[in-house]
Design the sequence.
């Protein structure tokens, strides 16, 4: 008998420390947290290689990494609280700090990164788009790893499907549940991985000097277009999305796509202008 679905019952914790240990007893290391950390490590290595080629001091990269970590986490958390559950968190503002309870939004992380890099560019008197063109290459790889972390958490999946690669998320629905769902985490992860390869090759193909705004433009258009269309088969994350034609993720993606298209147009125009 052929199985026409995949049973997914992976524990989100890699290991849990014994309860009787002082201070750290009961602390767990989760796949999501590990992949999130790896994304920053690999991102650092990728940007370091580009900065080294272009003669940017390593101390600048170290401070850039600090900005990225702080603004990514803060932006992702505030994005979830304000975009998806504003009523609750505006009534319970201190709960915004309880990041360990979960709740991060990629659109919020994107806004946080944009704000953080703006302040960083002002501090170091570097061109804003120059920094964005390089950092978003690493961000795309991070998107791949974070979506794989969502898979390990059995979260952010899609509608019911009869396709043979559908996943039965046992840890979410419980034992005995037999309906398979689109593994939209994997769909997004694959799209982001291909985008990372494209952007990385694009940078080096142009010898580290692509048209200003081109890489960032491709990033915005392709990544958020992937997100926009996958949202059509993704289960709603919050109840109010059930009555929406376009859900919150799609509405938040549209401005990014438009800005990306404008940047791509500008970068093309700059290439054909007479010198």
Sequence:
């Amino acid at each position: 008998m052929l199985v026409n679905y995949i049973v997914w019952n992976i524990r989100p914790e890699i290991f849990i420390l014994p309860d009787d240990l002082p201070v750290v007893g009961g602390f767990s290391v989760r796949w999501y947290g590990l992949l999130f950390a790896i994304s920053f490590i690999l991102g650092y290595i990728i940007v370091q290689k580009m900065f080294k080629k272009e003669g940017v001091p390593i101390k600048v990269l170290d401070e850039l990494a600090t900005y990225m970590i702080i603004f990514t986490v803060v932006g992702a958390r505030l994005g979830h609280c304000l975009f998806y559950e504003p009523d609750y968190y505006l009534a319970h503002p201190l709960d915004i700090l309880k990041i360990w309870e979960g709740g991060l939004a990629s659109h919020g992380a994107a806004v946080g990164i944009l704000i953080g890099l703006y302040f960083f560019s002002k501090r170091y008197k570097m061109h804003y788009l120059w920094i964005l063109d390089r950092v978003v290459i690493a961000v795309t790889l991070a998107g791949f790893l974070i979506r794989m972390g969502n898979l390990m958490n059995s979260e952010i999946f899609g509608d019911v499907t009869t396709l043979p690669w559908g996943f039965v998320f046992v840890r979410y629905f419980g034992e005995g549940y037999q309906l398979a769902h689109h593994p939209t985490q994997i769909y997004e992860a694959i799209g982001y991985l291909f985008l990372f390869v494209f952007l990385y090759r694009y940078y080096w193909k142009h010898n580290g000097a692509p048209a200003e705004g081109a890489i960032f433009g491709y990033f915005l258009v392709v990544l958020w277009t992937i997100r926009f269309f996958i949202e059509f088969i993704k289960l709603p994350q919050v109840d109010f999305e059930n009555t929406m034609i376009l859900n919150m993720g799609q509405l938040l993606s549209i401005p990014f796509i438009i800005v990306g298209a404008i940047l791509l147009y500008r970068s093309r125009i700059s290439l054909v202008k007479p010198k």
Summary: The chain has nine helices and four strands. The mean pLDDT is 89. The longest strand covers residues 13-16.
